[in-house]
Amino acid sequence: MIWALLVYENEELGKVDWRWQAADGRLGKARLGGDEIGPNPTDRAKNGTKESLLVDRRGGPLSIIVAPANINDHLLLEETIEAIVVDRPEPTEEEPQHLCLDAGYNNEPSKQVVKEHGYQGHIRPGGAETLDKNGKKKHPARRWVVERTISWLSKCRGFLVRYEKKSENFIALLQFACALLWYRRLPILETVFS
Questions:
Q1: Using CA atoms, how far apart are residues 120 and 97, in angstroms rounded to an integer?
Q2: What is the CA radius of gyration of the chain?
Q3: What is 112-139 written as a DSSP string?
Q4: Could you tell me which of 173, 160, 45, 83 has the C-alpha nearest to residue 37?
Q5: What is the mean pLDDT of each run of 10 residues along the chain (194 residues)?
Q6: pLDDT at position 99, please?
Q7: In this structure, what is the dihedral angle of CA atoms 99, 64, 18, 157, given to the nearest 10 degrees?
Q8: Which of 64-99 are b and which e, b meaning 16 or more Cβ less than 10 Å from the residue's Cβ?
Q9: What does the alpha-carbon distance between residue 164 and residue 42 come to, in Å, rounded to a whole number?
Q10: What is the pLDDT of residue 33?
Q11: Tell me, what's the pLDDT at 136?
């Protein structure tokens, strides 16, 4: 898969940051129907699809899955983590891996999945700030990178509304777009466009 090759290439160049990762989902429209669709709870129960995405610290997509729109994000977390396109390095005491999630994952099954996969979970409950003893933020905000990557993917017109009836075709387009995001990080392009 071209996406995995580009992630490996970027990893060799030190452009994949495994220390902090973030996951989130996005609801989209699926007007023509097909498989892996369901009633969208935010769009008057019209046909919809959900993409669940996991990114590294800089917003590089590591995995993406597609599911019906009526499935909660936390039910897709384990499948999203297991769908990482490359071998994830083992977290250690010196190099722990953190996973940032929003309040939709603030439940016991999600916390168990985070623990089983060796992450240190950072699940922000309902708008509460995590403060240290001095009243300062414990960790800077890092969940915005997954929102930015979702926004980048949404800029591709074919993803805003799903027209593919087969989920395999739709996921292939998403994987190609994720590969393109990694391709743009290669140093060859940085020197050309700078």
A1: 6
A2: 17
A3: HHHHHTTEEEEE--TT---B-TTSSBSS
A4: 45
A5: 90 90 91 85 86 93 94 93 94 91 91 94 70 64 87 83 88 92 77 50
A6: 94
A7: -110
A8: bbbbbbeeebbebbbebbebbbbebeebeeeeebbb
A9: 21
A10: 81
A11: 65
CA distance 18 to 36: 30
State the pTM of this model: 0.86
Which residues, 6 or more positions from 189, have their beta carbon under 8 angstroms from its beta carbon? 183
Q: In Å, how far from its chain's centre is CA 15?
A: 17
Side chain identity, residue 139: H
What pLDDT does residue 135 have? 64
* Alpha carbon distance 153, 147 (integer Å): 10
Written as one string, the DSSP assignment of 65-100 is EEEETTS-GGGGHHHHHHT-SSPPPPP-SSS-EEEE
> What's residue 124's pLDDT?
76
Backbone angles phi, psi at 90, to 5 degrees: -70, 130
Domains (range + CATH), the chain: 2-186 (3.30.420.10)
Nearest to 57 by CA among 11, 104, 110, 118: 11
Which one-letter amino acid corresponds to residue 183? Y
